[in-house]
Amino acid sequence: MADVLIRFYKWWHGRLRLKGAGLLLKLVAQRYRGLQNYPLSVPEVGVVLLDLRDMGSFMWLNYAVDGHHPEEALVTIIHALAKPGQVLWDVGANVGLISALCAGGDFGFRRIEAFEPNPALLGSLRALLKDSSCVRVHGIALGDCETKAMLNLKRGDSTRSSLVDEGEESLEIMISAGDVLIQAGQAESPDIIKVDTEGFEPQVLAGLKETILEKMPCMIFEEFSSLDSFVMSYVASGYRRFFITRDGYLTIDKNHPVRGHNGALIPPHINVSHMMV
């Protein structure tokens, strides 16, 4: 039955471009276990275990259908910034889309450190990335100190889980500081940091203060608009502020059509002229 429903989705949503199939899958998945741990084969990536009760899984399903996903602009920017042998930190890895895509192709990363504290996602995330020689999955959140905290979950949408915003339910998770992990040899120092932590970004980078001062990595954010004072503190220390356009370019014009509120902080030694619009 699960295979039939997935084929229907690919035909209805992928070929006919009609709405409604996603809602059908999500409704059926509430009661049918075959859609709660569905093994989807994604070309050039591997087998992704989908829980179609959760909106995050539809990112992989849609990518398998037509090659598109909501993180295209971020992945394009990461690809343009990446140099062979570098280290990427995927903070808030969720279903592993960015980590898996950046581990393949010609990105050339020596190591990808993927951080995801939600235990409901860790099984499929580790299964997806287990054969990757460069990706290391950490089942913790990053913050400004070693502690425990409550992760607030949004029912049916793991992409909006937050340590800041309220949710329908919550669970206790571990938080570690990035600088501590690097000093302990548990993670490699990043050249590029992608952060998507639903409002917890200031704490994440506060825990990487020493690393940022020493190495000045590129920093890419899923959400920029609510972090103005935080972002400007880095601009004052020499970073340049950019917005990310829908087609994966950088712009300083916040009125330019951008992908959501995505943005980047780029250190002065990185040439981004070829990425500008």
Strand order of the largest sheet: 5-4-3-9-10-13-11-12
Major β-sheet annotation = 8 strands, mixed
Question: What class would the helix/strand composition place it in?
Answer: alpha/beta
Shape: globular
Average pLDDT figure:
93
Could you tell me the number of beta strands?
A: 13
Estimated radius of gyration: 19 Å
Residues in helix, %: 25-40%
Helical stretch count? 10
Low-confidence stretches: none
Helix and strand succession?
HHEEHHEHEHEEEEHEHHEHEEE
Beta content: 15-25%
**How far apart are the first and last residues' alpha carbons, in Å?**
47 Å
Could you please describe the fold and organization of this structure?
With 277 residues, the protein is of the alpha/beta class. 33% of the residues lie in helices and 25% in strands. The strands form 3 sheets. Strands 5-4-3-9-10-13-11-12 form an 8-stranded mixed β-sheet. Helix 6 (119-129) links the parallel strand 4 (111-115) and strand 5. The chain is globular, with a radius of gyration of 19 Å. The model has no long low-confidence stretch (mean pLDDT 93).
Topology:
Blueprint: H1 2-15, H2 21-29, E1 38-42, E2 46-50, H3 55-66, H4 72-81, E3 87-91, H5 97-103, E4 111-115, H6 119-129, E5 135-138, E6 141-143, E7 147-153, E8 169-177, H7 178-183, E9 192-195, H8 201-206, H9 209-215, E10 218-221, H10 228-236, E11 240-245, E12 250-251, E13 258-266
